[in-house]
Amino acid sequence: MQSFDQLPRTLPVFPLTNAIVLPGSHLPLNIFEPRYLKMIHDAMRTDHLIGMVQPRDNNSVPRLYQVGCAGRIIRYDETWDGRIEIMLAGLCRFRIDEELSSMRGYRLVTPEWTEFAMDYEEQEPVDEDDINQFFAALKSYMKKNNMDADWQMLQRMSPEELINSLVGILPVGVEDKQLLIESDTLVDRLQGFTAILRGELDSSSAKH
């Protein structure tokens, strides 16, 4: 795995709504578009890193949110029909400093890593009360949306793995997910996530 000082000066980015990877989480991707097949091949020949970033709109060349997260390709499988299935492990967030011109078909940026050096540091311990409040909000949210979960498995996960994985899985709004991506610390993200789930519950209750 790259140390912080080894993070690259340029990074290919994959703009994809709701495809979130954060430090401590994993994201499976099924790649089939030619430009992104080329991106994955290029990444495999270099540092195995790509950046996941959410688009701001549905334009053919969408505007991008400025903060995303780099993921390292830790599994790579070519399929019989020409697709590539990969698994990304979240490594470090970045802010887009500049978008570069590229002849490769995919988008390439200059990432600014310094703001997110804390992604390489041990996270501040999470208060048990905060975790309990999160689980209470999560259970209410999932019950309201007729969703099921393996609660024993979720409670065995570390707070970092739990929160950073659920940001990508739960169908909350794009702007809310972006807010969680940009949260400074894990504690901030946990408390923000709890507030978002409660807000979703309050919103759905107000409609009935």
Ordered list of secondary-structure elements with their pairings:
Elements lengths: L10 E5 L10 E6 L2 H12 L3 E5 L13 E12 L5 E17 L6 E6 L15 H17 L6 H6 L2 H11 L4 H8 L4 H21 L2
Q: Radius of gyration over alpha carbons?
A: 18 Å
Question: What is the CATH C-level name of the largest domain?
Answer: Mainly Beta
Which structural class matches the secondary elements? Answer: alpha+beta
Mean of all residue-level pLDDT scores: 91
Enter the CATH topology name of the largest domain. Archaeosine Trna-guanine Transglycosylase, Chain: A, domain 4
CATH architecture of the largest domain: Roll
Count the E strands.
6
Quote the distance from N terminus to C terminus: 50 Å
Molecular shape: globular
State the domain count.
2
Could you describe the largest sheet, including whether it forms a barrel?
A: 5 strands, mixed, barrel
Give start-end ranges of low-pLDDT stretches.
none
